[in-house]
Amino acid sequence: MKVVDRIREAIFAGDLAPNQRLIEADLCAQLGASRSHVRNALADLVSEGLVERIPNRGARVRAITLAEAIEFTEIRMVVEGLCAAKAAARVTDGQAAQLRSIGERMRQYEASGDLIEYSNCNRELHAFIRTISDQSAAGDIIERIRGNLTRYQVRLALQSGRAAVSLPQHLEIIEAICARDESRAEAAMRAHLRSVIEALENTRPATENGDPW
What we know:
Helix content is 74%, strand content 5%. It is mainly alpha-helical. It has a three-stranded antiparallel beta sheet. A hairpin with a 3-residue loop joins β2 (51-54) and β3. It is globular. The two termini are 31 Å apart.
């Protein structure tokens, strides 16, 4: 795996936290990479919006505001709506069975209160829908913004009652795709992500100017 991919995944996983300084010498030692490779990787991540450079202080993981998280989710709503529609047009019987299997696991985890596994299935479902859709450009867009949304998604996933709200939305997406109803699938995905936006807005902290959490 390339150095840039390893740092990106560490940000996505939360191993590198928002506002954490990225010291080139430390990254070289941790990744077994040269200074030039680490420097080039950080430059790429700056262009992706995952890292920022602070004058006289070096690089750090960029912390996004709640307003930015909402804007990114609005982009997801459009792009993933397209993916859901394309998935409905292309889904095979085998893939439909896999989608329903994921949905059943989500149902079981929600009932048992296992929010971590429910969240894992959530990510698996969205990723599989993108795979079925065969929309590589759309997938690239979603991957580019995924890291910026990670900490907000984790907070939402662990909110009391959130899984009970999102489960029927996910099951509707699954059934619409399995029914090969493109319009219904797109509408279901958009409705789900609109619900995510509303949940984000309801978690807005009592700070001014959309300060990062």
